[in-house]
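Objective 1b: paired records.
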Amino acid sequence: MTTEVADPEAIIVGIDGSSASRNALMWAIDEARAQKKSIRLVGAYTVPSVASATVDVSYVPVDDSAVRAAVSDSLREAASLVKEAGVEVEAIIEIGDAAGVLVEESKQGSLAVVGSRGRGGFAGRLLGTVSSALPAHSHCPTVVIPVGWSNDSKRTPEQTASRPIRNAGGDSFEDTIEADTVTGPDYTGQVVVGIDALGAESQALWQAAELANRRGSSLVLLGVITTTVVGPEWLPSTGDMKRYVDKGADKLAIAAQAVREKYPDLDVSWSLYDGQPAEALVRASDTASVLVIGSRGRGGFAGLLLGSTSQSVLPYSRCPTMVVRVKRES
């Protein structure tokens, strides 16, 4: 049963008293100011159960007052920070599994924000069970704030095995790179969104466009294809390979044009890479202000995001990462 809340469009923040959840809160405060929305702080804890062969019950009542008091203190401290920032706030304490509580709360929220690690509760388990449950089942977009992230942290591009192929400027890099790795792209101050086969129909694209437009940031559409021939099953001709690359570039160009038509003042560009999607996304996060990915798709890397790609991107992303649930057509 969903708890009655003051604002069903609030930004939800999981609080557990850790530095990671504090970083998540500070990011959420900035976003709440920009969107003129309130914040709902949510703390969760579980009551230990005891199973014994000598008794007929699997639950033994315990005094949870100390645990609840600790959660209350964390929420009270967080609420003070939100109020000081001039943002409306409410706080909720729930007894239950962290993943289940957060997913339930997301039914009445516009955005959920959590830290990637903490002392238990949401953040402590996010890269365990919640890493799958949250992107798969959240009813609103979710932003994961990485460990140690801060708005003013200095980040530089790292080496990457993903190779640029085409970009919005008309550059072609297909025959210019011979090294095994190259320095990754610099997306400082920009919002980067991973684009899959959905192209302009991607919910992640439009969430990213709205975010970039609101922030006054540039938006980069990032596409990834794999041209490596791993066996005799696929031995494309030069013409086939060119058509394959052209199709990927066209998909990005069409999506970028659609965004420009809706947000004419937004600076939009795109880049097509050859490599492994998870690696390309993680390297984009080295410098991006926000990385946006879809949780499901019709193929490409988005189709894998509830499996290997999400498992690979979220633990290693160096910037706030927004996961947008993409509903599949039946």
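Objective 1b, second protein:
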Amino acid sequence: MFRGRQRGGGNLGVLLLGAQMMNMGLENIPPVTLALVAGQVAIFLNLLPQYFPSAHNVCMSSYLVWHRGDWRRLLLAVFYHADDMHLYFNMASLLWKGRSLERRFGSPYFFWLVSVFTALTSMGYVAINLLLEEKLHDHSYATQCAVGFSGVIFALKVVTTHYTPPGLHYALGFIPVPSRYIYWVELGLIQLVTPNASFTGHLAGILVGLLYIKGPLKPIMDTILRPASSRRFTQGGQRSGRRYGFFSSGTTGDGDYTAAQGGNGYYPNSGAGLYPDLDELRQRRAARYQ
């Protein structure tokens, strides 16, 4: 999520995203993930103006949602982006996380997962800002207006990391961090790299992800729709990460992964993608200096 930014005129991020999708292969992107990416690109390019308002009419703040009662912003703001690179970073990350989780859980459950995460992350963002406004007596928290999918991305990252074998991940490409702490470290580092990013939006996403893997959210959701993996794993199959292709945060493997020298993580061979196995911060640096 980004606060108070205006969309720029360039579409370099859209071109980079298209190149990454072509390199990955559209046939290798599961349907829900592909639909989410394509839909957000269409909104950004204003291809459906009759159905979607302009970005400045949908940004989400606790003042507009809670005090003014504009509840539609809880949903709409998530699918808008401040500029083309904001779109690229979020969608590039979604491609890896979505492909991993959708293959693991099945498309119906992944759609259910994203839907719940979207609603809860937006409500969490509003609630956290309301709490900070009250406790710190700072009205600026109420007026912070954010757009973007990154809160949901952080929630998905928590879940993806949960299903990753324990080991080291590398924030910024060189800071070794135990996998269980990687999203907390990135929460702080992204704020340093991009001060305009919404800290409370990203925090809300992490809390929703933790509510799923450690709290009551998953059992509640599973009473409505069970993930495909629940049925698959009860049929005697091995539950190894290598068989099901979950090696590192945000990526999925198809048997084309090799262990990284000097580390516990896994990195794809050179042909696996445009920016393979890069977390959000490494993607940001790679795109900036290409």
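The longest strand covers residues 168-171. Residues 283 and 289 are 10 Å apart (CA to CA).
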